[in-house]
């Protein structure tokens, strides 16, 4: 017991030092959670594909609570490591980050935070609140540029959608960091760039005919008709025992990480604002 306590103290100290150096926000409980997660990942059987590996890692998060706005901490943007409470995007980011370091067999904390930073921020550079990839269409395109995912929505039969993405700029009061004028102006600038972009969506009516092309481990983003917004939810595709694609995700319904009981097609029918999906394949 004494040895275990010493290890926890040492681990906590190490995390504090690394956090200070790398502008990382991480609690002592998360340092313990990280080491527990590494043990779980090491115990997983070898997977045939990266998608299978990601799904296996994602399942280790089952029943972790859904918590909104886990990245909105403090007054200055930092790399938040929170493995105890996840929203839909941080769930996907954490699974992908653990997948990347496990594939390279680099299972140290600094390797994980470097992977997480690369995924979460534009071009992998943490440079204030505006550098975070807030809109998931840009998250997909920027991570495709980094070589981490491939947007396969067009290959699945998706159609081009032209839509002005400006929800954050027009709903400033919903985002605590946007009280700062510099942050707000940076978001307006990024939205101005996004205004020039088109994105591809596989319509809800076309998913059933094409879901055989979706693979376990693909990242699913739910496109929305809500004005100014591109995506309302994300998760990871998993082909269940019924042969259908379901979604492994941090759910606002059950308020925890779960696998949808309904197939993706039937799950989307319950979301009135849903336009369809975008699919990004980790590579």
For the biggest sheet, the summary is: 8 strands, antiparallel
Low-confidence stretches: 1-21
**Through-space gap between termini:** 42 Å
Number of E-type strands: 10
- Kindly provide the radius of gyration, computed on alpha-carbon positions and rounded to a whole number of angstroms: 19 Å
Round the mean pLDDT to the nearest integer and report it.
92
Summed up, the helix count is 10
- This entry's quaternary arrangement is single chain
Helix content: 40-55%
What is the string of helix and strand elements?
HEHHEHHHEEHHEHEEEEHE
- Beta content comes to 15-25%
Alpha-beta classification: alpha+beta
What best-fitting shape do the alpha-carbon axes yield? globular
List the helices and strands and how they pair.
Blueprint: H1 2-22, E1 24-26, H2 28-43, H3 50-59, E2 79-81, H4 88-103, H5 109-120, H6 136-145, E3 149-151, E4 159-161, H7 167-170, H8 181-194, E5 199-203, H9 204-210, E6 219-224, E7 231-239, E8 245-251, E9 256-259, H10 264-268, E10 274-282
Parallel strand pairs: 1-2
Antiparallel strand pairs: 3-10, 4-5, 5-10, 6-7, 6-10, 7-8, 8-9
């Amino acid at each position: 017991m004494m040895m275990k306590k010493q290890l926890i103290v040492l681990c906590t100290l190490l995390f504090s030092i690394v956090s200070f150096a790398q502008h990382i926000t991480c609690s002592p409980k998360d340092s313990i959670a990280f080491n527990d997660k590494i043990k779980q990942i090491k115990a997983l059987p070898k997977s045939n594909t990266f998608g299978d590996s990601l799904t296996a890692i994602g399942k280790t998060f089952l029943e972790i609570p859904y918590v909104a706005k886990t990245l909105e901490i403090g007054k200055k943007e930092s790399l938040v490591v929170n493995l105890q409470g996840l929203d839909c995007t941080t769930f996907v980011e954490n699974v992908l980050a653990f997948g990347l370091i496990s594939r390279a067999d680099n299972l140290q904390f600094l390797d994980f935070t470097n992977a997480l930073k690369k995924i979460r921020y534009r071009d992998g550079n943490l440079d204030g609140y505006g550098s975070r990839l807030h809109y998931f269409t840009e998250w997909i395109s920027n991570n495709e540029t980094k070589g981490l995912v491939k947007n396969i929505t067009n290959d699945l039969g998706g159609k081009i959608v032209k839509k002005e993405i400006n929800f954050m700029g027009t709903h400033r009061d919903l985002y605590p960091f946007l009280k700062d004028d510099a942050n707000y102006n940076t978001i307006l600038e990024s939205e101005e760039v996004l205004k020039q972009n088109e994105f591809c969506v596989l319509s809800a009516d076309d998913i059933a005919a094409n879901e055989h092309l979706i693979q376990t481990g693909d990242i699913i983003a739910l496109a929305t008709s809500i004005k100014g917004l591109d995506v309302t939810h994300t998760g990871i595709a998993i082909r269940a025992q019924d042969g259908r694609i379901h979604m492994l995700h941090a759910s606002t319904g059950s308020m925890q990480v779960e696998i949808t009981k309904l197939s993706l097609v039937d799950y989307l029918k319950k979301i009135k604002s849903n336009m369809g999906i975008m699919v990004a394949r980790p590579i």
